[in-house]
Write a structure and sequence with these properties.
Its EC number is 3.1.-.-. Belongs to the esterase D family. This protein has one domain: 3-Layer(aba) Sandwich (Rossmann fold), CATH 3.40.50.1820. The protein contains eight helices and six strands. Strands 2-1-3-4-5-6 form a six-stranded parallel sheet, sandwiched between helices. The chain is globular.
Length: 239
């Protein structure tokens, strides 16, 4: 909660998925940097666990129906995680979490934002396409290859009129970690092409590129970029 009076229109607010992991990324020095701008209310959405990630819960909550994959050579088969519950989670978020969080706060609905990384980025993309109360969407390194139908592919035929007042930011690093599955370059190209196609239709969609950063490194950097951008400061990205 910002330690200053809200702007006339209300505070910006950022809802952050994987809330157990995000708070460790926000040290006092960075929070002071946010305070120099128009600092947002920060809402970390986590789980009842001491671990940074509840892998089973996030696999269900953040994803549409996913593809199944054969195990990679030399890798043991893992028990399948239950997936496909993002509509249920989005309803809980929009109908319960958001109203309860903002009940006694002056919030600017146009500056109500959501951030997610990987599966969380996939959730943010899907929420952008569907009815949700957010004006700004930060989708970081979304797991596009996991969905049966990429939300971006489905978005190419959308009516721009329905998206007035919505802004989507696609955040991706172009670095590849050792052992990372193939297809990263293809995902980058999908993001670039789709951003251009959607922007040409009048939708507010931007692509932020982070040279050399891998999927895992994008977690912290994209989170900080979203917070800086929402506070009216420069994001840490090449646009």
């Amino acid at each position: 909660m910002p330690d200053k009076a809200p702007p006339a229109a209300g505070y910006p607010v950022l809802y952050m998925l994987d809330g157990n992991a995000v708070m460790d990324k926000l040290d006092d020095a960075f929070l002071q940097q946010l305070f120099a701008g128009s600092p947002p209310v920060i809402v970390a959405i986590g789980y009842q666990t001491a671990l940074p990630f509840d892998t089973a819960a996030r696999a269900w909550d953040y994803t549409p129906p996913l593809k199944t994959h054969e195990p990679r050579a030399g890798k043991p088969a893992l028990p399948p995680r239950k997936t496909g519950g993002n509509d249920v989670f989005r309803q809980l978020l929009t109908e319960t979490m958001v109203p309860q969080t903002e009940a006694n706060l002056k919030i600017d609905p146009h500056q109500r934002a959501i951030w997610g990384h990987s599966y969380g980025g996939l959730f943010v993309l899907d929420a952008w396409r569907k009815a949700s109360p957010f004006g700004i969407y930060y989708s970081a390194s979304p797991s596009l290859g996991q969905a049966l139908q990429s939300p971006l592919q489905a978005s190419q035929s959308l009516d721009a009129v329905r998206f007035r007042g919505k802004s989507l930011y696609l955040l991706e690093g172009d670095g590849k970690a050792r052992g990372e599955p193939s297809g990263h370059e293809a995902s980058l190209e999908v993001l670039r092409q789709t951003q251009q196609q959607l922007a040409s239709k009048g939708l507010t969609v931007a692509f932020w590129r982070y040279p050399g950063l891998t999927h895992g490194q994008m977690f912290e950097v994209s989170l900080r970029s979203a917070l800086l951008h929402l506070s009216g400061q420069a994001a840490l990205a090449h646009q």
